[in-house]
Specification:
Oligomer: single chain
Number of helices: 7
Number of domains: 1
CATH architecture: Alpha-Beta Complex
Helix content: 40-55%
Structural class: alpha/beta
Distance between the termini: 25 Å
Strand content: 15-25%
CATH class: Alpha Beta
Length: 216
């Protein structure tokens, strides 16, 4: 099994919806905003090239957004820049992995940047901590990380810094989460109310929704 940030976030949001998506093959409905976002990421990676979207209106919106932010983005990309690069580590029979938008190696630290194309601003450090931790596992000589969520539409940045002690604390936390993922028993389902309940195939039968509270 591949263990990504998206899988971890889904598990924390609702363990049984995670199981439905990653083991039963449930797919969320097509999302135009996500398609545009992926295309903007590709334009950043390829300096304005790549494969156009099939829907002209979506391609137009992606190109418009890219042209608006490309100057600001280029100012950040200074140093030993790695774009859209996979980083991974083995975990028993499994693999922990991430495709990181940008990370930049400097003399004594690594800078991590994740571009967000949505309209909502969220100061959730989990993704930044996960990416930084995985890079640290692959580059142990770097023990200082500066990580940023860059909300392109809003021109807002959320930034955190992590040192070796913070990375070690996160290591204990994320190992516990992954262990719970691997030990999950679908015969004893765990449900939580979250942002994606309306798309979940179990929403009509979900005891958390029926009860109106969270199963923490």
């Amino acid at each position: 099994m591949n263990i990504s940030y998206s899988a971890i976030k889904k598990f924390l949001d609702c363990p049984h919806q995670w199981y439905a998506q990653y083991f039963l093959g449930y797919k969320q409905p097509y999302n135009a905003a996500a398609s545009i976002g992926s295309r903007v990421h590709e334009l950043i990676e390829t300096n304005g090239r790549g494969t156009p979207l099939e829907t002209p209106l979506e391609e137009h919106e992606a190109q418009r957004m890219y042209k608006e932010i490309v100057g600001d983005v280029e100012q950040l990309l200074v140093g030993d820049v790695h774009k859209e690069e996979w980083v991974s580590m083995p975990f028993g029979a499994h693999k922990i992995l991430a495709k990181i938008d940008v990370f930049i190696k400097n003399n004594n630290h690594i800078r991590v940047i994740d571009f967000k194309t949505g309209k909502w601003y969220n100061e959730d450090p989990l993704q930044l901590k996960f990416y930084s931790w995985l890079l640290w596992k692959n580059n142990p000589k770097y023990t200082n990380y500066k990580a940023m969520l860059y909300y392109l539409r809003l021109n807002k940045k959320y930034e955190i810094e992590l040192d070796k002690d913070e990375l070690k604390r996160f290591d204990k936390y994320i190992m516990d989460v992954i262990h719970r993922m691997l030990m999950y028993n679908p015969n004893e389902p765990q449900f939580k109310i979250g942002n994606y309940c309306q798309w979940c195939p179990y929403s009509k039968e979900c005891p958390a929704i029926k009860g109106g509270n969270k199963n923490e």
